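Bench notes, afternoon.
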Amino acid sequence: MYSRYIKDMPLKSGPNKGELSAPEIRKLIRGHNKLTNIKVPPGLDRAGLIKFLKSKRYAVDHVNKMLIDKSMGQGRGRKIDLEKAERLTKPVPKTEEQKAATKAKKDVKVAATKKREGDLIKAGATLAKVRADTKVKKAANVKKKAASDELDRRVAVRTAQAKKRTDILKENGIPTLEDYRSGIEKISGGKILSELSAAKRKAVADFANSVEKKLSAAGATDMNVISPGPASIMRDVGNLERHFDFLATKLLKKA
């Protein structure tokens, strides 16, 4: 099943002659996904694939037939070539035990369906009605799974984006939102800030102001001095949180 990719390389004609074909680029992505994960939008042609990879800070090396991760995160410098991608993506044949387990699972499911249909028919339902209901239920399950998969995808995207923002701050020696929150938590002991003693509120405000100075020095929006007053400290400490994402996004755009 892999020979068709090999015979295509590289492109034989056209303006991109000598470069990798779309199937080869997809194979590099599949191989790279064994090391990390690249979510590729469906329906992209060759030009779309290259544009998408570039937007994610990946480079396709057509000469050496490699996919290179050029990001500043933990995967910096990671590379995958066609030979390695071929090895990583080659399917592992199922053992006889695995085949038997799959068949047994399928047989149990078929038997359960037949029993359910038989019970419904005995109760007075027609076979056509039973199978029509089964078809509707299957369609509903497919739709439910698609919605669940989409939710999982969105959560994964948000998680990955949050990690990138955290990583870029760490790489530039800037406190992260987690550092800030844990510092506030350590000083306050988990209590409501407005209910702390004046000394504790001042300690929280001093810590928050020290973090604010570092964010401002790195290019975040300047804030007013955080006040230790019982009526303002919760508002001011909370307002500073949004500047972490602002600065991280700004740094990622420069990267």
